[in-house]
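Before a colleague's protein record goes any further, I have to sign it off. What it holds is a sequence and that sequence's fold in token form. Would you go through it and say whether the fold makes sense for this chain? The record follows directly below this note.
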Amino acid sequence: YIMRQHRIPLMIFKYKSMFVLLISTFICQNLIANQEEQLAVENKLREYLQSIDQKNVSRISEHFYFDRKGWDRGPVFCFGEGTTREFSDLNELKSFFDKWSNAQSKTYNTHIEELQITLLFDGRQNRLYNADAITNRLDSSGQVIKKQRNLYYFQSDKLSDQDDSWTDWKIYMISNIEI
């Protein structure tokens, strides 16, 4: 009878330990997956900023999302106080960036000073991230031309229920915030 009494607490300890191990493993796997996605979003943001620096309208437009699940409209830009622009199709977006690139006379490089990437939604059919970036635009001599803060919203959609394939991360909204 005494041997049985020692077995019960040992079994409870064993099962509690296994439970804690399983929960810890699950949490660690989610953190690793989240970090991988955050790195993918950061890389897409850096590619986009490089396209902006090069004023390459075709490459710039590749970074925006028009066929999103859960939202049947095009990308939205919010410029400062109350100025919002929604794009209904890719040609409208390209036309906007063509006008913008023709108005830009200076060449510059954009450097990210601060970046915080946050998961906003982790659904079965889509995932949303926010990249809060403070950037400096530098001229050819390295002097700051402009410092700005933008919120970039990225989305990836699941391609098929049969496998775990997802679309590339694309921007669906940009908001400019005064510093």
Summary: The first strand starts at residue 76 and ends at 79.
